[in-house]
Design goal:
Layout lengths: L1 H9 L7 H12 L3 H7 L1 E4 L4 E5 L10 E5 L4 H14 L11 H11 L6 H8 L1
Antiparallel strand pairs: 1-2, 2-3
Length: 123
């Protein structure tokens, strides 16, 4: 969590790569790659809660839910917007980044070497 906190606190810049930030956001929100990359809508719903909508796997695609956030929700939404702008390429789907994302997971969080394991840690 110290690694995640440092990256979230810093945001994108000379010391934080967009893939590092993306992987940390996967951990602290518990969301799927495609949801975080471009699909899901996030907004603060209290200091450590997010209102999310447009789930990747749901029968009710228009539904919304309040989920816990492992860090301040306002900062999380700000970092999600930063990382989405950094990856802003509508012709490049998130699955084209799977290998790089998996490598970064292993580097940042050796005990959780896949995005599925990050979701489990979040839970």
């Amino acid at each position: 969590m110290n690694t995640a906190y440092g990256i979230i606190k810093s945001g994108l810049g000379p010391h934080v790569d967009k893939l590092d930030l993306f992987v940390v956001l996967l951990l602290v929100t518990g969301r799927r790659q495609q949801e975080l990359y471009n699909q899901m809508h996030f907004e603060p719903a209290g200091p450590y809660h997010l209102k999310v909508s447009s789930f990747a796997k749901s029968l009710d695609k228009n539904g919304s839910a309040i989920i816990p956030s492992l860090f301040d929700s306002g900062i999380i939404v700000q970092r999600i917007n930063e990382v989405r702008r950094a990856f802003a390429d509508p012709d490049r789907p998130v699955n084209s980044l799977n290998r790089k994302i998996s490598e970064r997971c292993k580097t940042l969080f050796p005990d959780a070497s896949t995005t599925h394991q990050l979701r489990a840690l979040y839970a």
